[in-house]
Amino acid sequence: MHEIILHHYPFSTFSEKVRVALGRKGLAWRSVEIAGLPPRPLLTPLTGGYRRAPVLQIGADIYCDTHCILPALEALQPQPSLYPPGSEGVAEGLGFAWERQLWIPSIGVLVHYIGEHIPPEFLKDRKEGYLYVDISKEAMAPQFAQHVQALRAQVAWLAQALAARPFLFGDEASAADLACWQTLYLLRKNCPPEVDALLGLEPLRPWYERIAAFGHGQPTPMSAEEAFAVARAAVPRPVDAGAGSGEDGWVPGARVVVTPDDNARVPVEGRLVAIDATRVTLHRHDPEAGDLHLHFPRLGFELRAA
Known about the structure:
Layout: E1 4-8, H1 13-24, E2 28-33, H2 44-47, E3 55-58, E4 61-64, H3 66-76, H4 88-114, H5 120-130, H6 137-140, H7 144-161, H8 175-190, H9 194-199, H10 205-212, E5 218-221, H11 224-233, E6 255-260, E7 268-275, E8 279-286, E9 290-297, E10 301-305
Parallel strand pairs: 1-2, 2-5, 4-9
Antiparallel strand pairs: 1-3, 3-4, 6-7, 6-10, 7-8, 8-9
Helix pairs in contact: 1-3, 1-8, 4-7, 4-8
Protein name: Glutathione S-transferase
Pfam family, one: GST_N_3
Keywords: Transferase
């Protein structure tokens, strides 16, 4: 069994979501810290150009997007589960909807407080190659009130849902809890304490602290060179080709392109290996890294013929 390798950077909130999932499961993992901005010369060959963080690597299998990474961790170690019985579809859909709805509003509140400290090169990258939105403090200021309203409305239903239970689905934390938590982590970690009152976060404090207490598992550092060597020496795991999803008609072996449908829309091309209703797997051959399987969720990604 290959080691769990996470390519991530410290201030990435989606990376924190996975770090906490690793903590919830008490897993040992190797930590490869990457730059917050490209270039990432030893990661890009592994991902085929996909540029979002985090990325999970297990041997020559590369998992992209947290909605693919968390199910991969669940398959590796089912207990404690991130999907309490009966919650699987709701946890996935709820987490996805929360993240999509609140990503820009949370950035709007963040830059209101700390925008002057964000480096110009980071703002340029997010505008031109990632979010396609100007997230400078000046550009986002006119929408500040709307961003606060959006966050307060979502926080209100979350507080109602958690009023009589430790986590969204009862006594056990779920992937949906982690999705909601990571947004609030971004704000509470980087903004002054007054953000709690601004957004009505006080009722969520016990829930927030329960999730923070999961920690990050047992990480040990690993260099990008070491991770690349692991991929080069490994062989992708066999996977069930699947029967396609509904009327999709995708045929394993076809050349296809997978692209995020919201931000960082960098297309990744490869040969279709497996597909079902929730995941698509591509084979890529890199001259240096060798044969790789890249795994993407169907949710939030566009699949088309190459």
